[in-house]
Amino acid sequence: MALDRSGGRNVHIYATDDPTQTVLGGLVLTNGVTNNNFYSMIEIFLVFRSTFSLQDIDGVTIDRNDHPLQPGKYYVTGSFSINNEPLLTRALSLSTGTRHESFRSAVRARDGRCVITGQVALSAHLNGWVGFKAAHVFPLAYEGYWDDQNYNRWITRPPATGMPINSVQNGLLLRADIHELFDSYFFSINPDDNHKIVCFMPDGCNIAGKCLDLQFLNDPNRPVDQLLRWHFRQAVLTNMKGAGEPIFEHDFPPGSDMAGEIRSGPKAAERMEFELFSRLVAHNYTE
Known about the structure:
The radius of gyration is 20 Å and the shape is elongated. It has 287 residues and is of the alpha+beta class. The chain is built from 8 helices and 10 strands.
């Protein structure tokens, strides 16, 4: 059963000139989100035709500054439309792997730790990587979309074998639970604000508001900002636009009716295609 991303919101967004007070979107407010961040995120899911501002419930204009955003209702002034940028569904099940072997090895060799939490893979010298996953920033399942948009142009260090989507510049080593949150767009990295981690759901890992460290950022093989920006935009659209996208079930124990549950839920065709692709790649590239 799909869950609702809007249930825990404590920031709500409306248009000042809408008498129906239809909610345009909202946010589960976590540590580190500033007024300036809020403006920038609204500019992702709303397309403005002119300058705009935000007002609180008392009609006071919110300055675009680094003060912490406060919970409440906010009203958008100005002319705008809703962004219809494509959302790429990511609904990996726990038993699925979509990481090409050379990609996985390159990401492990570069990072050696979860780049979000800093937890080191202590058994890496013994080739022990239990609890760590090499995650694609842009999902491998949508390689066709990658090719259509010519995202290859952002890759300066292509892999020795395979396609550019499997470049180390499209990967992060993450703790397994953090990988799941990343793929679900529960958090993302904002490359335009000191590579700050922005959480869109309650932060149980104490990562919200922290920035990626210089050890990672100074590595010439790190993920390119264009791909991190793509993921951040997807996270904003997934979590903040309208009621937000559904949170899909991904834990399908042996014997459960995965196909039936997917077919009965939202975005059934997209999810089924993604799951089938994931299992096919997992079969071909066993970890």
